[in-house]
Each structure stands twice: as C-alpha cells, then as structure tokens.
Amino acid sequence: MWQFFHKLGSPKWFFGIATRLMPWLLAGGVLLLMAGIVWGLAFAPKDYLQGNSYRIIFIHVPTAFIAQSIYIMMAVAAVVTLVWRMKLADVFVKAVAPVGLVLTFLALFTGAVWGKPTWGTWWIWDARLTSMLILLFLYGGVIALDRAINDEKSAARAVAILVLVGVVNIPIIKYSVEWWNTLHQPATFKLTEKPSMPADMWVPLLLSVLGLYLLFGWLACLRMQTEILFREQRTRWVKDYVMAGRG
Amino acid sequence: MNADVRPVLKLRDDTVGVLAAMRGVFARDLKVAFRQRQDLLNPLLFFVMVVTLFPLGVSPEVSFLREAGAGILWVAALLSVLLSLDHLFRHDFDDGTLEQLVLQPQPLFLLVLAKTMAHWVLTGLPLVILTPVLGVMVHLDGNSIGVLCLTLLIGTPVLSLIGSIGAALTLGLRSAGVLLSLLIIPLYIPVLIFGTGTVAAAAEGAQVGAYVALMGAFLVLALTLAPFASAAALRISLSNG
C-alpha cells in the first residue's frame, strides 16, 4: 500500500496512468451525461407543480453537487500537501480550482434561470444561494492567492492553508438549508434516505451527476498533465515525451 | 524606522516561560502602537466616516436608519478591521522582528495569538467603545445598542483572528491589500450574518441567548484554530522572501 502511495507521488507515474485512464473517463462521462440529460429533458415525467421548468434540475444539481465536492477534494489534497508534501496533491489543487469556479458559477446561473419561473425572481438572498456565492468567492480567493505567489512551493502550501480554512464553510453550506430553512428546496439526494421523487426523475439525475463526475475526472487529468509537463519541463522524461510526440 | 520607536524583543532565552513570552509580545505591540498614535486613530476615523456615508448616500430617514443601523455599523467595523490588518505583521516583517519571533523557543502560534490579541485591543476594542455614540446617531434604541455592542465585543476578536490568517498569507506579496480583502471577506460573512441577526432578533423582542451562544462558539473555534493557521502561513511567507 505504501509503495502505491509513493508511486502516486511521482508525477511521471501519474502522467502515464492518466493517459491510459482518460479515454475511459471521457467516453463514460459523455455517455452517462448524454443519457441522463436526454432522458431527463425528453422522457422524464412533468413535475405536477412546476411543469417543464423543473427540467433544468438535470443540469443544476450535477453542477452544484460537483462544485461543492471539488472543494472537499481540494481540502483533502491540501492536507496531503501540508502533511506529506506530495507534489501531485498541489498540482491537483491548482488544476481543479478554476474548474470548481466555473461549475459554481454554472450552478448559480442555472439556479437563477430556474428561480425566475418558479420563485418569480432571478436572485434571492436565501442561505443556500448565499453560501454558493461564498463558495464562488472562495474559489476566486484560492486562484488569486495562487497567482500572486511566484514561488511554486510557497504558493502550494499557502493555498493549502487557505483551502483548509475555507473548508469550514462547506458544512455551513450543507446544513444552511436546515438551519435557516428558507425558499430553497432541501437537498435532492441524501445518502440515508430513498429519494422523494419517482424513479423516472431521479435515475436520469443520478446518471447526469455520475456523468459529470467522470467528465470532471477527465478534465482534472488533462489539466494536471498540462501542469506536470510545465513543472517538469527540465526533466529527461518530459523532453523525451515531447520529442516523441513531435516525431 | 529607528530603534527607540520600535523596541527590540528580548525573549531569546529558554528560561522565559510561554506566558511570559506572550505577555512580552503583547506589551511590545501595545508600546509600538502607542508610539505611533496615528495608526491607532486611522481605523476609527475610517469607521466613523463609513457610517456617515450611509445617511448621506442612502437616506437620512429615521425609519431607514433604525432598520439598517446595526448592519451599517457591523459592515463599517468589519471594513475597518480589514483595513488595519495589513499592519498586523507588515512592520515586523519589514524590520526582521518577525523572523526573530519565528526563531523563539516558544511555540509560534501562541506568540501569534498574543499579537492578534494586541491587534484586537488596538482596533476591535476601540470600535466597540465608539459604537454607542454612532448607534445613537443612527437612531438605534438603547436595547439594540447594548446588544450590538455585545455582538461586536464577541465578533471583533473573531474578525482579528480570521484576519490574521489572511495577513500572514499575503505578507510580502504585491498588491497584498486587495488580495487580503478577497481572501478574508468570504470568511467574515458568517460572523456578519450572526452579528446582525442577533441585533435584529433583539429589536423584535426575541431572546438573543442562542445567537450570542453561537457567536461565542465562533469565537472559541477561531481562537483555537486560527493561530495555528496563521503561524503556519507566517512560516511559509517568511521562507518565501
């Protein structure tokens, strides 16, 4: 197990694994996401209250879900960075922070589009929405701090601390619905309970969440590979790799 | 800056206990601040001016001010703490005192805690003392002013503690001021929400015990965790230079 752990720390080893993994992640992600969205948008039954407008859930929930879990993944990677000084962990944080930012923005945007027909307003200062907005700011702060520090190692550790401090915010997001209990409907999926919607609705939703996860995995691998190539540009294997690609 | 304005730390000794070291850092920070009084006054002036902008910019109506007053004061206090954070480590960083602090045998996080407490005594506490006057100016009633002062008394140390993390992270960076605000404001939001929520609940005649307890929980959480984070961040920033 420890050997695996050490290998995982090696950028070169990860690069090879990622190359082999990426086609599967991409294919699986596109398939699942297409299936989920087409099923959700075209075949799932209408909501008895919200009519067709609820269908944006098949985009809104996956983006919001993954936007939050990316931050948690970043926090785990931050611990790894601080404790074991593993290079790959901070490559991960740096690579996925912008993805998290974009997904958070998409979640807020689709939420606004959904809010207009159902609540009659684009934006409401509801606890859930506000904490998503804070999440957006947190991603922005992480990216800004990373850009501001020139030294790679210092940047990695400073960002790791910031991410860990910000992770205190995640439980507040998660439980804010129950605490303040305002307009936003409660979480769609809970691990412990059966979903309260019919299978025709939640199965496509689950498919699109999983699909987006796989797509995120693909994107994360791609961005990490780019970052690794950039950081290791002086090493032998990167030179070989690049020359082989050219030839 | 000459030596007699900024007294040298004299802790370089294993025989100095942790508490004595913390007291030393605390006393020195106060001494430095009182030798440069303008720095002490600036956040307070800023606080008063920001509060003044609201009646001028939005509405001087008594009904509006009574409704929004607590929020205005809280936001103004938050901003002036934010403004003063840059000073927390900057001068010590520039003249090398901070490196000496890191080299002390005593745990760094406790020394950072002492510095942060000094920062609160110099900025947060004066804001709390000034609040009743401004509270009267925005037409808050006596009960609300009392609760507002209480929330600020519990809340401003949290602001200083969380802020110390940001100040440590951005130490020695270009455009540190703006970056500091970007990093710290999101983390301030929960404190602000509960701070103003407490006053709003008091204005409606509700019991505020639970709110105050929650703010106390924030304080305890910040007090226990923030010094570790800022100490770690300080080490990074120092190794950076």
Automatic annotation (TrEMBL), chain A:
Keyword line: Cell inner membrane, Cell membrane, Cytochrome c-type biogenesis, Membrane, Transmembrane, Transmembrane helix, Transport
InterPro entries: Cyt_c_assembly (IPR002541), Cyt_c_biogenesis_CcmC (IPR003557), Cyt_c_biogenesis_CcsA/CcmC (IPR045062)
Location(s) in or outside the cell: Cell inner membrane; Membrane
GO cellular component terms, A-Z: plasma membrane
Example GO biological process: cytochrome complex assembly
Broad class of where this protein is predominantly found: membrane
GO molecular function annotation: heme binding; heme transmembrane transporter activity
Membrane topology (UniProt): Multi-pass membrane protein
Domain of life: Bacteria
Record-linked NCBIfam families: ccmC
Family: Belongs to the CcmC/CycZ/HelC family.
Protein name: Heme exporter protein C
TrEMBL record, chain B:
Family classification: Belongs to the CcmB/CycW/HelB family.
GO cellular component, one term: plasma membrane
Organism: Marinobacter guineae
Function according to Swiss-Prot or TrEMBL: Required for the export of heme to the periplasm for the biogenesis of c-type cytochromes.
UniProt keyword Translocase, yes or no: no
Membrane topology: Multi-pass membrane protein
Localization, UniProt: Cell inner membrane
Protein name: Heme exporter protein B
Regions crossing the membrane: 40-58, 70-89, 109-133, 145-171, 178-202, 208-234
